[in-house]
């Protein structure tokens, strides 16, 4: 699991924390993408899979390894796009 390998449980926590909102409970399919903005700064974006932005969150500091990473949420399952 990426969270264990990269010690980024905070990334999963961010995704899960949004699921408490009514707006996110209505969305069966979600695309979560984290992108490096600067050296140690990132932006997390959630969409409905059709480019409708549901939320964005700036991450002021992280030592996250990847420049860009995407996770899908389908129902109650988080998966990599390659696992679909």
Topology:
Layout lengths: L1 H5 L2 H10 L3 H4 L3 E8 L5 E6 L5 E7 L8 E7 L2 E3 L5
Antiparallel strand pairs: 1-2, 1-4, 2-3, 4-5
Structure overview:
- This protein is an alpha+beta fold and 84 residues long.
- Helices cover 23% and strands 37% of the residues.
- The chain has three helices and five strands.
- A hairpin with a 5-residue loop joins strand 1 and strand 2.
- The two termini are 15 Å apart.
Count of DSSP-assigned helices:
3
Give a short account of the largest sheet: 5 strands, antiparallel
Please identify the structural class as seen in this structure: alpha+beta
How would you sum up the global shape?
Answer: globular
Helix content estimate: 10-25%
**Strand proportion:** 35-45%
Helix and strand succession?
Answer: HHHEEEEE
Rg, Cα atoms, Å: 12 Å
- For the termini, the CA-CA separation is 15 Å
Q: Please give the order of strands in the largest beta sheet.
A: 3-2-1-4-5
Instruction: Count the E strands.
Output: 5
Mean pLDDT: 94
Query: Unreliable segments (pLDDT under 50, ≥5 consecutive)?
Result: none
Write a brief caption for the model.
The protein has helices at 2-6, 9-18, 22-25; strands spanning 29-36, 42-47, 53-59, 68-74, 77-79.
Q: What are the main properties of this structure?
A:
single chain, 84 residues, alpha+beta, five-stranded antiparallel sheet, 3 helices, globular
